[in-house]
Amino acid sequence: MFTHTPLRLTTLALLAAGSLSYAYIAGFFGLEILAEIAILAILVIALDLVAGFGGMVSLCHGALLGVGAYAFTVAATEAGLPALPAMLLSVALSSVLAFAIGAVCARSTGIYFIMATLAFGQMAYSFVFQSPLFGGDDGLSGAPRPDLTAIGIDFTDSRAFAVYTILLVALSYLIASATLRSGLGRSLVGIHHNEKRLRALGLTVWRAKATAFAISGALAGLAGCLAAQHTQYVSPGLLSWTVSGEALVVVILGGLGTLVGPLLGAILFVVLKHEISAITPYWHAIVGLILIAVVMSRAKGVFGFIEARWEARSPKPVVKEAKADA
Amino acid sequence: MLETRNLSKSFGPIQVTRDVSLKLEKGERRVILGPNGAGKTTLFNQLVGELRPDRGSIHLDGADVTGLRVADRARRGLSRSYQKNTLFDGLTIGENLGLAAAVALGKGQGLWSDPLQSAEVRETVREVAAQVDLAPYLGARVDAVSYGIRRQLEVGIALATRPKVILMDEPTSGVGPEMSKGFHRLLKGLPRDLTILIIEHDMDLAFDVADTITVLNYGEVVFDGLPEAARGSQLLKDIYLGAWEDA
Question: What is the mean pLDDT of chain A?
């Protein structure tokens, strides 16, 4: 079951302090990277919620992010909605779509679940790619950032935008962790461990899976809104399965099923991408080698490795075995 | 409390249950005996809804539940334990019991509070842990305890739903004689108004806890009556009990 251990809380506090401090000292390029990390962090929190805790490994989270990005852009540019209502609308749309996908895929598990989500994701990608309404291959531009100039906050400023994305990462984390500590979250973990037994206990498993997927989809949609606001441009590439695959790599790299780990994974991934790509165009190969090392180490990602070392140092309570007739 | 009428199920040409009609009153403890392949577990699977019968009906507390899904039947008070441990392996024993209690209390889909911290769930966990002798192990992970403790937990999870009817599929399967005695006491100590249907091969336990005995052979009820009558039945000795009687 999900718990906030002292190590996790300490890590979260360090990440919050570190990212906010960096937001105040970084230059333009650093702030752009920070926003990119934050957007990826929200997506991987969303994915870890269902994949790490519910065993629902999804390859449609890129599409859910893309739906959020496109819905926001269309709502804000075509429908003329202010940024905040457009965000709420697009998050709700991603969530409803995710609920439907979760409900349909709920009966499948393992590779079949992955393939079903991949199919949904690619359907969304093809639809957006071929639809003139969404600009086809050219995408859409003009996604606005929220206008809070009335209260003295200008999101066209990279620093303000980076801080805003960090705050939304914190909000996303709070939503995901609250979900995991709720009845739904406890059931989600139970489903991951033994779906058959939970059904026999009286849980409507498909509904629990679909609801968890809807919450995850809402977070992915939020990441999409921010992605659209960040570059002020959306293209079909956002919905591609490679975005989902990349998010999965980040979750595994950071620590599947830890919620904190994927945040570290997002930082590691984006920093490596920018640092290594400055040296060689084959940066994916380097990240691939690191991923192989992480998977082969059988630790739960980078954070799982740290947690295992931490726990090895802590004394464990001794559990006595029952006598046969106890 | 639980009734089946002409329950029949085939897998291809093999008929695994044949016109099985049973009627359990509230608080009745019935043991189902029968050789391997007699259709006992298949009968359980139909009772809880994991298998659809080809023919016949199942009634729980007066209502026809034949068309209901597994979860719906569980919510109406039908619970089961499995012959092969079906636990939440990565969790602690307390979390296993808590999850079962939370789901049964309708807190399995809530979003606003942690059911494992609720007074109602904690109380159920405490009571069930005492019933199945697991109180000292609530913090232990399931994959770190012995097979015997896992068998106790298997029954504990089923009890944590506070069922009206509990089906136990060979609760003493794979445990030694001492642990079997422990189960014996556990069963004796369960509330008297709980209706229990048990598949059991341990004859001492079966005859000690049973109010009534049903014997299945090739999917068919060949005996249905009191334990005393079962002991004296030549038919039963021929198909099942010979070795036990001679021992």
Answer: 92
pLDDT higher for B210 or A263?
A263
CATH number (domain holding residue B3): 3.40.50.300
Which domain, by its residues, includes A153? Answer: 6-239
Query: Which candidate in A181, A201, A321 is best for mutational testing of the B interface (most B CBs within 10 A)?
Result: A201
User: From the list A179, A193, A321, which residue is nearest B111 (CB)?
Assistant: A179
Q: How far is A213 from chain B (nearest CA, A)?
A: 13
Complex confidence, ipTM: 0.87
pLDDT of amino acid B205: 80
- B69-80: per-residue pLDDT in tens? 999 999 999 999
Residue that terminates a domain, selected from B139, B162, B185: B162
Contact: A208, B107; criterion CB under 8 Å: no
Banded model confidence at residue A319, pLDDT cuts 50, 70, 90: low
Is B112 in Cβ contact with A324 (below 8 Å)?
no
Task: Identify all chain A residues contacting B71, using CB atoms and an 8 Å cutoff.
Answer: 199-205
Q: How far apart are CA B71 and CA B85, in angstroms?
A: 19
Structure confidence by residue, pLDDT tens digits, A179-215 = 999 999 999 999 999 999 999 999 999 999 999 999 9
- Residue A302 covered by a domain: no
